[in-house]
Amino acid sequence: KQEVTQIPAALSVPEGENLVLNCSFTDSAIYNLQWFRQDPGKGLTSLLLIQSSQREQTSGRLNASLDKSSGRSTLYIAASQPGDSATYLCAVSQGGSEKLVFGKGTKLTVNP
Amino acid sequence: EAGVAQSPRYKIIEKRQSVAFWCNPISGHATLYWYQQILGQGPKLLIQFQNNGVVDDSQLPKDRFSAERLKGVDSTLKIQPAKLEDSAVYLCASTLLGRGNSPLHFGNGTRLTVT
Questions:
Q1: Mean pLDDT over residues A16-32, rounded?
Q2: Which residues of A touch B111 (CB under 8 A)?
């Protein structure tokens, strides 16, 4: 059974700092990995999707890497801003469908 | 492009009552999902539809939960009777083809409180 773990559970940083969020998964036979952002009282917004054959994806100040063999992914946020404050969730899919298994998320607070 | 629409936003019911949630996915999206998110947890898949057919309902508590997507567009999720542990946010998501290579689009969810 696939299990996804995110560390740390919460993170508080000053504005402008570069930071890394970690995600690990127990079964390396994944189809893809996605990073989502969730604001309070809102649904999830897809940030980055990495196919199993890819090593990383970039979007603006965000960079996600994938090491499938070790069961790890990182989300790098450059020059953090207060607007980046949210919960970030990692999810993996298997078997060619979007049936996602989620981690519990990392709650990020960026202080001005 | 209009996003995934869900209603109601909030619902408070007593245990043993019934409740229904509605979802309208992004136009043209063939695949629709219902997820349950308990406070402090990641979302858990309840059911996946491809058009109007069920692809995966292995984690749906079928003794009390039901879902349908009759015309392959909008969907309803029902709980009858509700239990205290059903208190959660119910999220609907859709994607274009359901082949694992396109991102999911989520609605804002329905927050259910069972007292």
A1: 95
A2: 41
Question: How many A×B Cβ pairs under 8 Å?
Answer: 67
Provide the shortest C-alpha distance from residue A36 to chain B (in Å): 10
Spatial separation of the C-alpha atoms in residues B70 and B23, rounded to whole Å: 12
Q: Which chain B residues are closer than 8 Å to A41 by Cβ?
A: 108, 111
Return the residue in B56, B58, B104, B105 with the most chain A beta carbons within 10 A, the one to mutate for interface testing: B104
First to last CA, chain B: 37
Tens of pLDDT, residues A43-56? 899 999 999 899 99
What is the tens place of the pLDDT at every residue in A71-88? 999 999 999 999 999 999
Sign of CA dihedral A45, B90, A3, B50: negative
| pLDDT, greater one: A110 or B102 | A110
Question: Residue A96 above 70 pLDDT?
Answer: no
CB-based contact A102:A92 (threshold 8 Å): no
Q: Are A98 and B107 an interchain contact pair (Cβ–Cβ within 8 Å)? A: no
Task: Return residues 29-88 of B near A (CB < 8 Å).
Answer: 31, 33, 40-45, 48, 55-56
DSSP 3-state assignment of A67?
strand
Give the C-alpha distances (Å, rounded to integers) separating B45 from A103, A105, B49, B56, B108. Answer: 13, 16, 11, 9, 16
